[in-house]
Design brief:
With about 375 residues, the chain is an alpha+beta fold. The protein has 2 domains: about 60 residues; about 270 residues, Neuraminidase (6 Propeller). Helix content is about 20%, strand content about 40%. It has 3 helices and 24 strands. It has a 4-stranded antiparallel β-sheet with strand order 1-24-23-22, with no helix packed on it. Helix 2 packs antiparallel against helix 3. The longest helix is centred in the first third of the chain and has 33 residues. About 15% of the residues have low confidence.
């Protein structure tokens, strides 16, 4: 009887341990239920003044003390959550929803430099240029030097050498280069699956040597191009292996030349060296912790940290260079689409039709 009583009490302790995250009302009801069960167990036990019985009662008392400790820890956690502040503070928003110059509709990719902020204004089918303080400068949308053809689906942006702006147009299946003032320079791509052709490209980045990397999402691959747009090499093809992808939606190159590919279908990031040799991956569906819902973009910072934009999860996940989750950004976000880092952190939001600007809190 005593052994059954002890096992039952430890079972009760296990139940309580798993309810630490329950709300306060639920916890109160649970505690009443546990107290009643302990009382019932004690009533069913014969009142024998033996050393074994006294030991059993001592164990029950110890378990009750542990239950009280768990309840206290729950209250402390609740208080900590109420007083918690995000490590990244929202300091301003840029632009408003609308059709006029300086207004945004469903903004996607963005890039930031000393020249300002460049954003892919997707539903308005144009690229808009703002100062870093958020003042409107100009917009551009030409697909040629003679203004024949316009952007249809500007999706991702990267800044190249000589103050140039590279844009991938997901609907025209092109990568287009502009001067900083919006003057058309050149383009490459076109719909297809041959090397150099593109199918719904959704990400672009440029390394410190000027080489261009494009996430050729519809072809399940990443292509590398020379600074003037000549095809060099392709990696990918549909699958889940180290060199395969299932809808790669973005690509980023860090300051050491490592290449990161965000694979939407497999919900992983794959890291390669400058020779495109596989190195590691970050799994967006971990055994413990929050999973990515719809990862759409990524970025790296000078410390080697990796930022994953989760549109449906309404947040940005931050990992260190080892692939360990270290932080999240979520304040104010409804549907984040892209991120750029230069002193502050800039994030586009497709539902709020704005650019959010964050700074790291001083205590971080």
């Amino acid at each position: 009887m005593q052994s059954k009583l002890i096992l039952s009490c430890f079972f009760i302790l296990l139940i309580v341990s798993t309810t630490v995250s329950a709300n306060e009302e639920s916890m109160k009801l649970r505690m009443k239920e546990i107290e009643q069960r302990i009382n019932n167990l004690e009533r069913r036990s014969p009142d024998r003044n033996t050393e074994e019985d006294n030991d059993t009662k001592g164990r029950i008392k110890l378990i009750e003390e542990r239950i009280g400790s768990i309840n206290a820890d729950t209250k402390n956690l609740r208080l900590a959550e109420k007083g918690a502040q995000p490590e990244y503070q929202l300091i301003k928003t840029i632009s408003y929803p609308g059709l006029d110059p300086g207004q945004l509709l469903n903004p996607r990719g963005l890039a930031v430099s000393s020249k300002g902020i460049f954003v892919a204004d997707f539903d308005n089918k144009r690229i808009q240029h703002f100062t870093k303080d958020g003042a409107y400068v100009n917009y551009f949308n030409n697909l040629s030097s003679n203004s024949i053809g316009k952007l249809k689906g500007p999706y991702s942006i990267a800044l190249g050498y000589g103050d140039t702006v590279w844009v991938v147009d997901k609907e025209n299946n092109l990568a287009i280069q502009y001067e900083i003032n919006g003057t058309f320079i050149t383009s490459f791509g076109g719909l297809g699956d041959d090397n150099g052709k593109l199918n719904e490209p959704s990400g672009i980045d440029i390394d410190n040597k000027g080489y261009i990397y494009v996430a050729d999402s519809g072809n399940d691959r990443v292509q590398k191009f020379s600074p003037n747009g000549k095809h060099i090499v392709t990696i990918g093809g549909f699958g889940s292996g180290d060199y395969n992808f299932d809808k790669p939606v973005d690509v980023a190159v860090d300051n050491k030349g490592y290449i990161y590919v965000l694979d939407l279908g497999n919900k992983v990031i794959k890291k390669y060296n400058e020779y495109l040799q596989f190195m590691m991956e970050i799994n967006g569906r971990p055994k413990k912790g929050r999973s990515w819902q719809k990862p759409v973009a990524l970025e790296t910072d000078d410390s080697g940290n990796i930022y994953i934009v989760d549109a449906n999860g309404r947040r940005v996940f931050i990992y260190n260079s080892k692939g360990e989750l270290i932080d999240e950004i979520y304040e104010g976000l409804r549907e984040p689409h892209d991120i750029a880092i230069r002193e502050n952190i800039y994030i586009t939001d497709g539902i709020k039709h704005q650019i959010f600007v964050y700074k790291v809190r001083a205590s971080h």
